[in-house]
Amino acid sequence: MTSIRTRNWILALLFLGWTLGNLDRYIMNYAVLSITEDLHLSPSSTGLLLSSFFAGYAIMQMPGGWLADRFGPRKVLIAAVVLWSIFTGLTGAAWSLVSMVMIRFLFGIGEGGFQPASSKIISLTYPKDERARAMSVMLSSGGIVALIIPIASAWMLTTIGWRTMFIILGVAGAVIAAFYWYFIKLPESNPEEEIAHTAVPNQKGIFSSLIKTPMIWNLVIAYFSIYAVNWGLAAWLPTYLVKNRGLDLISLGWIQTIPGVTMLAGIYLSGYIIDKLPKGRERLAGSFACLCTGILLYLMFTASSVPSFITYQTIINLFISFVLTLLPAIVLKQLPSSVTGTAMGIANTGGQLAGFITPMAIGFIVDAFNGSFDAAFWMLIGFSIVCIGALLTLNDKKGDLLKQNREEASALEV
């Protein structure tokens, strides 16, 4: 097993990369306020712009996961950071809606291999009973970014402008890629699971074997549903609070730090709780979190005041962060490390398809209802209910790749 010092150093570097990736995604939700004015975009066009990254990101999830299993996660990780750095910088040079959409789409393609590759690295370097906490550390980057980005984006957008801001982010990505190339060295396999590997299909059979695993499809649906809620809120709440609740950009920046603190705390706490849950209780805990999310979404959009709205948003982030940590933890705990790249790529495709579809759908809904977001909030409540169903019907026994596909796996090895 990789030494504690080495794996914690690797985790710190992965955290740094995830932070930069999240920074770009979250900052676009604020930068789009300036971009919309500069490029004269309608709500529908804005929704298309916000969704374009996720189209490329979703397309690359499964190939990125397979490449990580086939050629090693280190190579995929470095390639992903290099490519996304290039297209992040090019975002600052966009001159029209079409050019912006194409650049963001290619940026998504570039970054698509990062999540499954980094997840596989965790499975190679951490024992099973520590993987949820390791994943929560990486996911906490989203909470930290959500905490600082409202204030940071308000400052950058009003001083250096959105074009220079994206160029700076591109340069930062190139530096991180150099760190990965120099510092990250990995074992070929996790010794904890070497015996289990004899029952796992070879590389050519991994994808087909996983696709036949019922648990994977439950995870795809659950990923789609919770990320539809997460990215629907993240992409459109800044615009909603400015245009429908009357906040200015600076006030928006400060007030959104409150939900950011909750999400950060929720992610760290979730990793600890999930590692302590008895096997089989994860789906019940996740279903309860989704139920609370749906109820609170209704209370939030019907709130009569901004303080009440932010209070409900803050509590919602706590429950969303639990589900966002739970889903990858299920993959890392239930499946062997030799297939976690591909499995994470398949499952996370659902989440990134939601990131593509939801912002665009909300844009069209807002246009159709003359600026009202009510129907959009009802759509997000519906996704919370779908996530409950996906988690309640998740069967760990049927989802055990080593048991369910043992005969097929052995045949493929021969």
UniProtKB/TrEMBL annotation:
Keywords from the named record: Cell membrane, Membrane, Transmembrane, Transmembrane helix, Transport
InterPro entries in alphabetical order: MFS, MFS_dom, MFS_Na/Anion_cotransporter, MFS_trans_sf, Sugar_P_transporter
TM helices/strands, residue ranges: 39-59, 71-87, 135-156, 162-183, 216-237, 249-272, 284-303, 309-332, 353-369, 375-394
Top-level lineage group: Bacteria
Claim: Cell membrane is one of the keywords in the record: yes
Positions of the Major facilitator superfamily (MFS) profile domain: 10-399
Keyword S-adenosyl-L-methionine applies: no
Main location: membrane
Pfam families: MFS_1 (PF07690)
Gene3D superfamilies attached to this UniProt entry: MFS general substrate transporter like domains (1.20.1250.20)
Cellular location(s): Cell membrane
Membrane disposition: Multi-pass membrane protein
Database matches in PANTHER family: FI19708P1-RELATED, SOLUTE CARRIER FAMILY 17
Protein name, UniProt field: MFS transporter
